[in-house]
């Protein structure tokens, strides 16, 4: 119990520090978001309207930085993330709620598929060393070292084009309205194939390498030798003894990767102009949209902290050696 309280206290402190940085860093970026919004409307706003915008967006020049900081915390506790400059007058929560499902579906599905596929191939490669599966290692090493967005650029160059089945940008065909119908869903799936393939190729390689190396390490342990001496089948030794113990680091890594589902592939979405949080963040940066940037960073921060906590809990439950007796 003491361990959990210590970990929760650590994550609460980390969340406070991250949210505090989330408040101050955008305000250190040069530029005035209200002036950007005025330029968007080509100077058609009066001086009184400009002052009203500063107050509306929580950028009142007559307020101290500390007062703005306190107001920011009050807004967070009330679930109010402010109004977006980029999508004015839409609130930030609405903008994020529209972009978040795209990221969760794209990155979430590919993360789960890559984990199970990479772990399975890693078990096979580590248990049967010297077989054809070891020939995959140089290829997987190469792809795991290539960033997602570089693979995305290469995929667009090689596979996308005017007559290609794979669209090079967007989340669905122009003219369609997002809905659960027979027109929108196939279009959305078609537009997600290329970015999903990019993420899958790059991420599955890391799972193969890590699982293969752990299987090689575990295969030399004494309990594996004892299992063979008992006359147990090769399949049972590989799955019930070797793979079960080698899986522990991958499980904690998978829990951490779930946290990065929200913000781990921002550049991929930017490359493909995919309507997720990454592309929305790019638009917010260009417009100096403080509330939207802070809202996206807040979602990413919370997701990563929760995933780290779940990883700690999962490792304690799966590995009795990490538990401490009273």
Automatic annotation (TrEMBL):
Segments forming domain ABC transmembrane type-1: 100-311
Keywords, sorted A to Z: Membrane, Transmembrane, Transmembrane helix, Transport
Location of this chain's protein in the cell: Cell membrane; Membrane
Chief subcellular location: membrane
Residues spanning the membrane: 7-25, 99-124, 136-160, 188-209, 254-275, 295-318
Keyword Membrane on entry: yes
Matching Pfam families: BPD_transp_1
Record Gene3D superfamilies: MetI-like (1.10.3720.10)
Keyword Transmembrane helix carried by entry: yes
GO cellular component: plasma membrane
InterPro entries membership: MetI-like (IPR000515), MetI-like_sf (IPR035906)
Domain of life, source organism: Bacteria
Membrane disposition: Multi-pass membrane protein
Gene Ontology process terms (BP): transmembrane transport
Similarity remark: Belongs to the binding-protein-dependent transport system permease family.
Protein name per its UniProtKB record: Peptide ABC transporter permease
Organism from which the protein derives: Paractinoplanes tereljensis
């Amino acid at each position: 119990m003491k361990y959990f309280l210590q970990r929760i206290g650590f994550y609460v402190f980390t969340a406070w520090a991250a949210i505090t940085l989330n408040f101050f860093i955008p305000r250190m970026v040069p530029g005035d978001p209200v002036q950007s919004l005025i330029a968007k409307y080509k100077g058609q706003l009066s001086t009184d309207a400009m002052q009203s915008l500063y107050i509306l967006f929580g950028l009142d020049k007559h307020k101290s930085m500390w007062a703005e900081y306190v107001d920011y915390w009050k807004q967070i506790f009330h679930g109010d993330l402010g109004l977006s400059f980029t999508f004015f007058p839409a609130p930030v929560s609405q903008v994020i709620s529209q972009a978040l499902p795209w990221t969760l579906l794209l990155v979430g599905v590919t993360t789960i598929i890559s984990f199970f596929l990479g772990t399975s191939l890693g078990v096979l490669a580590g248990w049967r060393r010297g077989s054809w599966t070891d020939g995959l290692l140089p290829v997987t090493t190469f792809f795991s070292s290539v960033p997602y967005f570089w693979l995305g650029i290469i995929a667009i160059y090689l596979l996308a084009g005017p007559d290609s089945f794979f669209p090079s940008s967007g989340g669905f065909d122009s003219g369609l309205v997002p809905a659960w119908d027979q027109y929108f869903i196939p279009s959305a799936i078609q537009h997600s194939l290329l970015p999903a393939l990019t993420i899958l190729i790059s991420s599955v390689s890391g799972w193969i390498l890590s699982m293969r190396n752990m299987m090689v390490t575990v295969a030399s342990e004494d309990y594996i030798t004892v299992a063979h001496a008992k006359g147990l089948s090769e399949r049972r030794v590989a799955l019930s003894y070797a793979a079960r113990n080698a899986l522990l680091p991958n499980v904690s890594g998978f829990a951490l990767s779930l946290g990065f589902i929200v913000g781990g592939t921002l550049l991929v979405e930017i490359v493909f102009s995919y309507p997720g949080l990454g592309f929305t963040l790019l638009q917010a940066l260009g417009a100096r949209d403080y509330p939207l940037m802070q809202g996206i960073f807040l979602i990413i921060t919370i997701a990563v902290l929760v995933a780290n906590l779940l990883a700690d809990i999962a490792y304690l439950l799966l590995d009795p050696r990490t538990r401490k007796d009273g």
